[in-house]
Specification:
- It contains five helices and two strands.
- It is mainly alpha-helical.
- A two-stranded antiparallel sheet has the order 1-2.
- Helix 2 packs across helix 3 and helix 3 runs antiparallel to helix 4.
- The mean pLDDT is 84.
């Protein structure tokens, strides 16, 4: 069974480092202190990476993302904005990606209507 690589220590939260590289075919082992790849993608959670994978599979189509994930357009946009923010890029929205996602989730679940969501997203009203 293939296991995914951990990025952070499950005990203290520090960044994990690779100490041994091994070839599964010939069993050669190389020991050292290896840095993780420099890509920002490696800092994403498993859930975020799965989102990015689906996004690439559907060639960035938000409509196809809706179908693939079974969620609404605002929810997909919120998830995308969240990943963009986690990668360190500016999200051209007035509020933090996490807050935006919560608002869009509330809209998707019918807790608030579109008018209320728009006000919250614009910052015209505080979230309850």
């Amino acid at each position: 069974m293939k296991k995914n690589q951990l990025h952070d220590c499950p005990v203290c939260g520090s960044e994990l480092r690779v100490k041994v590289l091994a070839c599964p075919s010939c069993r050669t082992k190389i020991e050292g202190d290896f840095s993780p790849p420099e890509s920002r993608l490696f800092s994403l959670s498993r859930e975020d990476l799965e989102f990015v994978e689906v996004f690439v599979q559907v060639r960035g189509s938000i409509k196809e993302m809706e179908k693939a994930l079974g969620v609404s357009y605002p929810t997909v946009r919120g998830m995308l904005d969240s990943v963009i923010g986690k990668l360190g890029y500016a999200v051209n929205r007035g509020i933090a990606p996490e807050k935006r996602k919560k608002i869009l989730d509330r809209l998707d679940q019918g807790e608030i209507n579109a008018v209320e969501a728009a006000k919250l997203l614009k910052g015209d009203r505080e979230e309850e």
